C-alpha cells in the first residue's frame, strides 16, 4: 500500500478546470456579437471567425492582445483570467466599424 501511495505522488495531475470557450465572428467589417459577456476569474479561449474576404486584426490595448485573422479563416486568442470590468477591442484595419467589448462579470 505504501508503494502505491508513493507511486501516485509522482503521477501528473490534469486540471479539471478547462478554459471557457467563446466565439466572435467578423462579417461586413463588424464583430458579432459586439458585446461578449464572459465569467470573471476564468481563462478564456476566444475563437474569432473572419467571414469576410479581407483580413482583419483583432486588437485590444486593455487585454494586451492582437491577432491577425486572414479572410475566410479563424484564429484563437487566449485571455484572462480577467477582473470584473469592460475590455474594449477593435479591428485594426476597420476601427470605425469593427468594434466591441468583452464584459467580465
Strand order of the largest sheet: 3-9-8-5-6
CATH top-level class: Mainly Beta
Mean pLDDT: 89
Number of helices: 1
Q: What can be said about the biggest beta sheet?
A: 5 strands, mixed
The secondary-structure element order is: HEEEEEEEEE
CA-atom Rg in angstroms:
18 Å
Overall body shape = globular
How many β strands by DSSP?
9
Taken as a percent bin, the fraction of beta residues is over 45%
The CATH architecture assignment turns out to be Sandwich
**Can you tell me the CATH topology?**
Immunoglobulin-like
Considering the protein shown, what is the CATH homologous superfamily?
A: Cupredoxins -  blue copper proteins
Structural class, by secondary structure, is mainly beta
Distance between the termini: 46 Å
What does this structure look like?
Helices cover 8% and strands 50% of the residues. By secondary structure, the protein is mostly beta strands. The chain has one domain (17-94): Cupredoxins -  blue copper proteins (Immunoglobulin-like), CATH 2.60.40. The longest helix is centred in the first third of the chain and has 8 residues, at 2-9.
Amino acid at each position: 500500500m505504501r508503494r502505491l501511495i508513493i507511486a501516485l505522488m509522482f503521477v501528473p495531475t490534469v486540471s479539471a478546470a478547462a478554459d471557457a470557450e467563446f466565439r466572435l465572428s467578423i462579417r461586413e467589417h463588424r464583430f458579432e456579437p459586439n458585446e461578449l459577456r464572459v465569467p470573471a476569474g476564468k481563462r478564456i479561449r476566444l475563437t474569432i471567425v473572419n467571414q469576410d474576404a479581407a483580413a482583419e486584426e483583432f486588437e485590444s490595448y486593455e487585454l494586451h492582445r492582437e491577432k491577425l485573422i486572414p479572410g475566410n479563416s479563424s484564429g484563437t486568442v487566449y485571455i484572462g483570467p480577467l477582473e470584473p470590468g469592460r475590455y474594449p477591442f477593435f479591428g485594426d484595419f476597420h476601427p470605425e466599424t469593427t468594434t466591441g467589448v468583452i464584459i467580465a462579470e
